[in-house]
């Protein structure tokens, strides 16, 4: 009888230890969820800032083309290519479509706004179009 009492006490202690571990894991999951929400909000804010900057850059490019400042425009194109390449290198594993294949595709009608990488490619296409029009 004392053996069964000892094993019962041992099971009770194991159950309490599992409850503590479960509580700890729940708190950790909640903390991670809160952190993820915060990161998603920050990412959304950053996307809005990038869209705003993208618009300003496109406007500046139009002004430069109309005023004949092509060397600055060429530097902007090179910089845009570098930024797009760095972005694709850093975030390519998360891209569902495989990443690099879309860079070589011909420019479509108007800028695509599917994601941050698309914004860079759309700007580059627009700069090329403006250069051709000039």
TrEMBL record:
Residues 6-57 form the Adenomatous polyposis coli N-terminal dimerisation domain. GO terms for cellular component: beta-catenin destruction complex; catenin complex; cytoplasmic microtubule. Gene3D superfamilies: 1.20.5.10. GO terms for molecular function: beta-catenin binding; gamma-catenin binding; microtubule binding. InterPro entries: Apc_fam, APC_N, APC_N_sf. Residues 22-43, 92-120 are annotated as: Disordered. It holds the Pfam family APC_N_CC. GO terms for biological process: cell fate specification; cell migration; negative regulation of canonical Wnt signaling pathway; negative regulation of microtubule depolymerization; nervous system development; pattern specification process. It comes from the Eukaryota. This is APCL protein. It comes from Peucedramus taeniatus. The lineage of its organism: Eukaryota, Metazoa, Chordata, Craniata, Vertebrata.
């Amino acid at each position: 009888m004392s053996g069964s009492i000892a094993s019962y006490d041992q099971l009770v202690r194991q159950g309490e230890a599992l409850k503590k571990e479960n509580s700890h894991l729940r708190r950790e999951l909640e903390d991670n969820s809160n952190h993820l929400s915060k990161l998603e909000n920050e990412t959304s804010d950053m996307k809005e800032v990038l869209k705003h900057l993208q618009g300003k850059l496109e406007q500046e490019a139009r002004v430069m083309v109309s005023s004949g400042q092509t060397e600055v425009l060429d530097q902007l194109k090179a910089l845009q290519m570098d930024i797009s390449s760095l972005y694709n290198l850093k975030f390519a594993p998360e891209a569902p479509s495989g990443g690099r294949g879309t860079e070589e595709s011909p420019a479509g009608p108007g800028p695509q706004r599917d994601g941050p990488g698309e914004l860079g490619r759309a700007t580059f296409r627009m700069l090329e179009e403006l250069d051709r029009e000039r």
